[in-house]
């Protein structure tokens, strides 16, 4: 068993503090000079890049293309879709002037009052409005459809309470915006992208998710339906990990986007939008990591294998270097990212602790004595188990081990979620059980009033109405009125 890093708060003592410390100590991100914004450090960004690369490949495999739309949105655009503007108005940052000038008092610079914009510009909180204003020029006929665009971008939502990766004023994300000729096609698109997100979360992040539909209170502002994937963190709280929205014709009507259909009739276009953000980094950390630091799924780890030499002389180091070189080349040829850390400015013990903290899935340690025996020490980060393996064929052993770790951390997370998911019949039982965290399956009468009452009294929200859940009808735990099916309640981030 590896030595625990004593300077990292234990999850059981203070989960929130553990998370905040780990993000900083593992070199993922830090607070910036701008309130509510973060600096994503190279190691954290390397993980995000791997996420981005994989998702981008999956989007393109489903026929989507990348584009880029302006950061600044005319204020009038946000006024066109009533639900949308109401949902985002309180979070919008506004650009009012376009020039600074030297302060006459010699105190740096001030805003030039003569440079006020004729129309204020909103820093994008999301891009539906600017994109649908653009689509109006692109779409004339059914032959122009569908449009399947995605953009990788940053957005700004003026958050008062921020937390690295989970909730920051500025964050990175992708947002897909598609236009379709029929309602059926748009709905199919929204569900398809939800499945893409679920596959990514489970196959690459090793995070089990539940697919479902948001209640009316929780859906995206301006959407007719919001589909979501919900994940459970180790403290039993839910984290919304991706959403896909069926927008109907709301934005097409707001921006007058019509097309001539195959019957030569003029009608409004049907729309979707969908996105995931750097919040996924939070999901990754909180689903798998432990009191020793990060535990990264091999499919997303920037460094999948680290090799550390242990030596007493430069001659021994030269011998180890020669032995390691072909191993590194072979692993790289197999598509495995590997780092050989033979730097002499840090002791092996420090390196071991540092790579454990950073969640590198596999650590190999090689010394002169190991070479004599024809063996190498192997440690897997998920269980902290050490073993001895033959130097011959170590590459194939490592490749198999990485897949084993990937499967193991997924299975562990799934087992945890299943153990923390319970069914209740009464509101009293619900109020008792919600204090222990986890997902609670309960009947709800489908009204916003009952949902709001539960939220106010317990701080729990409806995470989703599961798509694959038990469809057995029943009675609402609060009102006793008919309920179509059980929904998932949880406290959330």
What is the gist of this entry?
The protein has 493 residues and is α+β, with helices and mostly antiparallel strands.
Note down, in words, how this protein is organized.
The protein has 493 residues and is of the alpha+beta class. Helix 2 (42-61) packs across helix 6 (183-203). Residues 1-5 have low confidence and may be disordered. It folds into 3 domains: 15-72 and 126-288, BirA Bifunctional Protein, domain 2 (2-Layer Sandwich); 305-405, Anticodon-binding domain (Rossmann fold, 3-Layer(aba) Sandwich), CATH 3.40.50.800; 421-490, Translation Initiation Factor IF3. It has an 11-stranded mixed beta sheet, sandwiched between helices. A 5-stranded mixed beta sheet has the order 18-17-19-20-21, sandwiched between helices. It contains 14 helices and 27 strands.
